[in-house]
Specification:
- The structure is a single chain.
- This protein has 261 residues and is an alpha+beta fold.
- The protein has 4 helices and 10 strands.
- The strands form 2 sheets. A 5-stranded mixed β-sheet has the order 3-2-1-5-8, covered by helices on one side. A 5-stranded mixed β-sheet has the order 4-10-9-6-7.
- The structure holds copper (II) ion.
């Protein structure tokens, strides 16, 4: 990558990979990731108000109701009204948190008539991918490949260390995709923050997750379940491209042609 391109990328690209000293969440690229960020912000509103209120009460009690400030203490032990209030209000808060929480939770599992199925298999220590919907005309081979981390010594200037792979996953944007996740040896986890996905790849089990990418981009993720010594060296890279570009990519791949740059 040229130096100018890096500057342009830095200024105009989305944050689809972690940045140095980043505290916030990566930019969303799927409706689900947007929902998660919305819910995070929504929860934070309650969290901040309740946190401030509780610490304010604690400070008031410590400062006002000690033996110096308040030498003659009150003798009452119960207040029915107060008990009703401090039971009802938290219950109401829990309900208004639970409603959007369940709506989001169930939407995570909603498979809406997928056009493409991508199969993801975790291995010690790389990912392999299968596009079983498509087969080449000659031989009927399906499209499948392994995806290994690019070692630091082979990195191109400007690419991400410990995040880049030799074979990226290519997926079309604005398309309902079903991703089936499993593992060949131990439990791995296929996690891409920008897409709002973090799903265990369990041997002997086929898990399913829907993906709908809203914009073009390169999304970086990592294995997120400790799976052995090279756990930190099996990243995930997904490239979201237009449907036309995806079809071109597929036909080149299936016909074993060399992709033009
Ligand atoms: Cu792993």
């Amino acid at each position: 990558m040229k130096f100018e391109n890096i500057i342009i990328n830095k200024l105009f690209s989305y944050c689809d990979a972690p940045e140095s000293w980043q505290l916030g969440i990566q930019d969303p690229a799927t409706p689900i990731a947007e929902g998660m960020i919305f819910f995070h912000n929504y929860l934070m509103f309650f969290l901040i108000f309740i946190g401030i209120f509780v610490f304010w009460m604690l400070a008031e009690i410590l400062l006002r109701f000690n033996s110096v400030q308040n030498p003659v203490p009150q003798k009452f032990t119960h207040s029915s009204l107060l008990e009703i209030i401090w039971t009802i209000i938290p219950a109401v808060v829990l309900v208004i948190i639970a409603i959007p929480s369940f709506a989001l939770l169930y939407s995570l599992d909603e498979i809406i008539d997928p056009v493409i199925t991508l199969k993801v298999i975790g291995h010690q220590w790389y990912w392999s991918y299968e596009y079983s919907d498509y087969a080449s005309l000659e031989g009927g081979e399906t499209l499948a490949f392994d995806s290994y981390m690019t070692p630091t010594s082979d990195l191109v200037f400007g690419s991400f260390r410990l995040l880049e792979v030799d074979n990226r996953v290519i997926l079309p944007i604005n398309t309902h995709i079903r991703v089936l996740v499993t593992a060949a040896d131990v439990i791995h986890n296929w996690a891409i923050p920008s897409l709002g996905i973090k799903i265990d790849a369990t041997p002997g089990r086929l898990s399913q997750v829907p993906v709908f990418i809203k914009r073009e981009g390169t999304y970086y993720g990592m294995c997120s379940e400790i799976c052995g010594v090279n756990h930190a060296f099996m990243p995930i890279v997904i490239k979201g491209i237009t449907t036309d570009a995806f079809i071109t990519w597929l036909s080149y791949k299936l016909d074993k042609l060399v992709l033009p740059n």
